[in-house]
Amino acid sequence: MTDHTPRATERATGRPLLDLVEVEALARTAHAAQRDKAGRPYTEHLRAVADGVRARGGDEDQIAAAWLHDAVEDGALTEEWLRGAALSGRTKEIVLALTKRAGEPLEAYAGRVLATPGALMVKESDLAHNADPVRLAVLDGATRDRLARKYARMRELLGQAGESERGPAGRASAGSRPAGGAGSGLPAPPGGARDRADGS
Question: Mean pLDDT, the chain, as a whole number?
Fold first, then answer.
């Protein structure tokens, strides 16, 4: 039986798409110098979001987007690079939907996430990790309160107001494989990661 999925079609008609191990390695390289507000490697957040998407039943395109969800917004990768990358069109659309533009109202951002198939699950996983009390506890009180309000407002705009933070408990989960280190043969991404301003 012939596989006619978009991913199979792209593999058959163009260059091979990056697999999840390669996407993870790319994301780790792109964000290698970046730290969150607590001083932790930012790649820990990317892994948590990817694992959260996997635990929620997300597919390969969504997991790839989870690894790359902050790459353009942070300047770790350029939008031009993303558009030409060996990724599925759906992964690219999700990443771009999750890329908040400078000065963009939260309402517009949330509307784009809701309008893009597959993006809401990635954002849900992102918010769950960002709002993790353990992660927030190390921040100063003013920053913690500001971020808590921001995340609550985003959940409201996404139709998740009043929901408790959900982890992967009770859902099928598979651990992601480590990507390995140097010598993977992946192209060096352009740009350089900057420190996250707000841990989002």
Answer: 81
Of 30, 108, 20, the residue nearest 76 (C-alpha): 30
For the stretch 79-113, what's the b/e string if a residue is b when 16 or more beta carbons lie within 10 angstroms of its beta carbon?
A: eebbeebbbbebbbbbbbbbbbeeeeeeeebbebb
- Smallest CA-to-CA distance from 115 within 157, 68, 71 is with 157
Look at residue 50 and tell me whether its pLDDT is greater than 80. Answer: yes
Tell me: pLDDT of 168 over 90. no
Cβ-contact 100, 47 below 8 angstroms = no
Output phi, psi for 35, to 5 deg.
-125, 155
Instruction: Give the three-class secondary structure for 134.
Output: helix
Give the CA-trace dihedral at 93, 97, 98, 102, to 10 degrees. Answer: 130
Inform me whether the pLDDT recorded for 45 exceeds 90: yes
Q: What is the distance in angstroms between the CA of the first residue and the CA of the last residue of the chain?
A: 43
Specify whether the CB–CB gap between 182 and 21 falls below 8 A.
no
Q: Which tokens is 158 given? A: 């996404």
